[in-house]
């Protein structure tokens, strides 16, 4: 039973091993992409290489290989051996770099496919930027301009503003440090060349880049450290498409000795010793030593590959290459025609766009002009309406002003008539005032005369009383001395005679005085009535004059629009008396008349008392 269990266990383990997938992961890094593949364990290098070429779309496979890093150096994946049997890294996934292993002598003739040109362009550009290929500053700027043309297309100043190359690595650091120039200055130099490449397609720009780069001394050269013998100083071996070159360690540009492929009969190595046999037997065999056996194998591999390509270039192309070249030629012709058509269409589109822009600009201009014309028309209509309204207002104002002017003229005429009336009334008033003054003077004179008459009457009365008293005394004396005493009848006769005489005189005198008083009272009353009438006329004239002046002032202000002083009308040869003078005269007359009345009453009282 134990043996059966052991057998079953072994069988199950073997079954699990058979079920496990026999694959491994591979990551291939090209110049512009990364790819991962799942490979079978039995795959050879050629299987993986063909898979990568098919994926990339590459047919010119003889220039490329899969390179990997081993210890301190690099190696190329061999196509005839299985992948896992070679000294590849044991990482998962295993990393390979898909790079150009061999370089053409003339890129324009040998590189057929566009993808081949593009991969070479990217690899050479990286080698120049990494300073693996020496390049002068002038050539670096020119190569950078073609790289910009390949990336951005034709230069457009409206789109490619200053600073658009700030994120691009275009020049080697050695060139940047060699000159004291800013990034903007370098960009300006590159842009100046870039602007001249207008119309060049991407593949053409990349080909121009490679045509300039293939003339550089270090282009396509693989360098290895060697020694000519074990005691000599170090040397450098360069392998390229032309042959083998020996350099001093400090100079990779100018070789000390060269062995072209056409002059080499055989190349071999034994462990660390490498032997170059020239075709000319008279020349010495050149031997050198490398530090590692792996390096000798790599050198021999590169020599064989470059020599095969060298011989292949000098033979008639294979049918496959001829077909590729024919297809490439047709493709280039087709692309050229497409570019020409595209260029024509682009030109036509640009012209159409320019015409469209011009038409749009013209349309906008016409629209602006129409808008401005409409605005001007609206403004003119508004101005016309405003002017019509102003004209109507002005016409109405003119009518109003004419009406007011007519009213002012009528008022002026009325005021002139009123002024004339006022002048006449003032003249009549002054005449009445003069008459009143004369009357007052007359009254004063009459009062004085009456006063004098009263004085004369009083004096006459006194004299009469004195005469009566003297007569009485004389009568008494006569009566006492001459005549005897008479009877009472006689006395009564004389007494009555005297009394009759006195009564008749007094009555006559009283009647005369009363008559004069009555006349005086009537005149005084008449004078007071005249003075009251004169006063009322003065007040009414004064009020009317003020109203007329105010009305004339308002009419003149409305008609002329400004304030005018009251009109002063001069009167020649007319004595103008103010209202204050008239009031003063009336007050004086009122004061004089009561005094006259009091004096007259006093005189009458005295006369009455005397009588």
TrEMBL record:
Keywords of the record: Cell membrane, Coiled coil, Membrane
Signal peptide start-end: none
UniProt GO MF annotations: actin binding
Cellular localisation: Cell membrane
Classification via InterPro entries: Band_41_domain, ERM, ERM_C_dom, ERM_FERM_C, ERM_helical, Ez/rad/moesin-like, FERM/acyl-CoA-bd_prot_sf, FERM_2
Residue positions binding a 1,2-diacyl-sn-glycero-3-phospho-(1D-myo-inositol): 78-81, 297
GO cellular component terms given for this protein: plasma membrane
SMART domains: B41, FERM_C
The protein's name in its UniProt record: FERM domain-containing protein
């Amino acid at each position: 039973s134990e043996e059966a269990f052991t057998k079953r266990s072994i069988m199950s383990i073997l079954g699990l091993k058979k079920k496990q997938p026999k694959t491994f992961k591979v990551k291939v890094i090209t110049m512009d992409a990364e790819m991962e593949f799942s490979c079978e364990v039995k795959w050879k290098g050629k299987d993986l290489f063909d898979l990568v070429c098919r994926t990339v779309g590459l047919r010119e496979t003889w220039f490329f290989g899969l390179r990997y890093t081993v210890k301190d150096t690099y190696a190329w994946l061999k196509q005839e051996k299985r992948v896992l049997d070679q000294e590849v890294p044991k990482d998962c996934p295993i990393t390979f770099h898909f790079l150009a292993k061999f370089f053409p002598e003339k890129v324009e003739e040998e590189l057929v496919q566009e993808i081949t040109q593009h991969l070479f362009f990217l690899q050479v550009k990286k080698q120049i930027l990494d300073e693996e290929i020496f390049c002068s500053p002038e050539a670096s700027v020119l190569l950078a301009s073609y790289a910009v043309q390949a990336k951005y297309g034709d230069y457009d100043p409206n789109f490619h503003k200053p600073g658009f190359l700030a994120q691009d690595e275009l020049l080697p650091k050695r060139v940047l440090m060699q000159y004291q120039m800013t990034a903007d200055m370098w960009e300006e130099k590159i842009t100046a060349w870039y602007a001249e490449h207008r119309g060049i397609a991407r593949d053409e720009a990349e080909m121009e880049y490679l045509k300039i780069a293939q003339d550089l001394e270090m282009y396509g050269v693989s360098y290895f450290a060697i020694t000519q013998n074990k005691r000599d100083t170090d040397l450098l071996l360069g392998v390229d498409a032309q042959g083998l070159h020996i350099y001093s360690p400090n100079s990779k540009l100018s070789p000390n000795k060269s062995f072209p492929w056409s002059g080499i009969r055989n190349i071999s190595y034994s462990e660390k010793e490498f032997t170059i046999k020239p075709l000319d037997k008279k020349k010495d065999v050149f031997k050198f030593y490398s530090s590692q056996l792996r390096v000798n194998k790599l050198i021999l591999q590169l020599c064989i590959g470059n020599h095969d390509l060298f011989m292949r270039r000098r033979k008639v192309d294979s049918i496959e290459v001829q077909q590729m070249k024919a297809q490439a030629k047709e493709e280039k012709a087709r692309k050229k025609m497409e570019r020409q058509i595209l260029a024509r269409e682009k030109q036509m589109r640009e012209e159409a766009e320019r015409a469209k822009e011009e038409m749009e600009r013209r349309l906008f201009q016409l629209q602006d002009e129409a808008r401005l014309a409409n605005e001007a028309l609206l403004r003119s209509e508004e101005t016309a309406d405003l002017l019509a309204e102003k004209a109507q207002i002005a016409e109405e104002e003119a009518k109003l002003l004419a009406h007011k002017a007519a009213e002012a003229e009528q008022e002026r005429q009325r005021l002139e008539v009123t002024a004339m009336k006022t002048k006449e009334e003032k003249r009549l008033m002054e005449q009445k005032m003069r008459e009143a003054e004369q009357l007052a003077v007359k009254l004063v004179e009459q009062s004085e005369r009456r006063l004098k008459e009263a004085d004369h009457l009083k004096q006459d009365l006194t004299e009469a009383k004195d005469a009566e008293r003297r007569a009485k005394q004389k009568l008494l004396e006569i009566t006492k001395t001459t005549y005897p005493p008479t009877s009472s009848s006689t006395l009564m006769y004389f007494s009555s005679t005297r009394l009759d005489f006195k009564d008749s005189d007094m009555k006559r005198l009283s009647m005369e005085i009363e008559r004069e008083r009555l006349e005086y009272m009537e005149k005084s009353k008449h004078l007071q009535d005249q003075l009251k009438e004169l006063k009322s006329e003065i007040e009414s004239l004064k009020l009317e004059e003020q109203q007329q002046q105010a009305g004339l002032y308002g009419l003149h202000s409305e008609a002329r629009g400004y304030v005018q002083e009251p009109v002063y009308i001069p009167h020649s040869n007319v004595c103008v008396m103010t209202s204050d003078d008239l009031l003063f005269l009336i007050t004086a007359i009122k004061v004089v008349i009561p005094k006259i009345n009091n004096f007259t009453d006093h005189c009458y009282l005295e006369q009455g008392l005397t009588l």
